[in-house]
Amino acid sequence: MSHAATEAASEAEAQADTATAASVTIGKPAAELRSLWLEPDTQSRIWSHFATVRAVDDCTADWSVPGLTGGDYRWRTVTAQEAPDRLRWSTQDGADLPNIGVLAFRPAPGDRGTELHLEVRFDPPGGAIGQALAKLFRIAPHEIVRTALYRFRALALTGEIPTTDPQPAARHDGTGR
């Protein structure tokens, strides 16, 4: 295999490792789910297992992910409302981790609510930073996206996201004294 062919195969493999999709069915109408997804604090809540997300305005958010060796990877996303059944976001220029995402809303079979289909592609830049980011996101890009959808589903159905974090008011020794 030539050097160019090997390089192209490695690039295709890296792209495959950083692109993922997941789906979930939620027993709610698409319009309600779309509205919840677009609420400014929703992204910070559903992605908190992976990143710190701060809403700048209705369509823009700043993201930060802790690096493997310290420091943070940062980027800003802008969400475009392509159609009533589809949202798309992408990073602005200068992102440490360029990415795009598409969320599609489809009627679930048997009038059981809405299917959400989320596709995300992380596109690490070249060089040492890109290699470190690729390693970080090869760990479990599908798990990151699947967990975000699970958390969104919980939020949509119950108004909260379940957690195993200790309650701040709970007694440490369990005696209640």
In short:
With 177 residues, the protein is of the alpha+beta class.
Report on the structure:
33% of the residues lie in helices and 31% in strands. By secondary structure, it is an alpha+beta fold. A seven-stranded antiparallel β-sheet has the order 1-7-6-5-4-3-2.
State the main characteristics.
177 residues, 7 strands, disordered N terminus, seven-stranded antiparallel β-sheet, 5 helices, 33% helix
Overall number of strands: 7
Rg value = 19 Å
Largest sheet: 7 strands, antiparallel
State the share of residues found in helices, binned by percent.
Answer: 25-40%
Counting DSSP H or I runs of 4 or more residues, the number of helices is 5
Coarse shape? globular
**Helix and strand element order:** HEHHEEEEEEHH
Output the strand order for the largest sheet: 1-7-6-5-4-3-2
Q: Taking all residues together, what is the mean pLDDT?
A: 81
Ends: how far apart? 71 Å
Portion of residues in beta strands equals 25-35%
Query: Uncertain segments of ≥5 residues (pLDDT<50)?
Result: 1-16
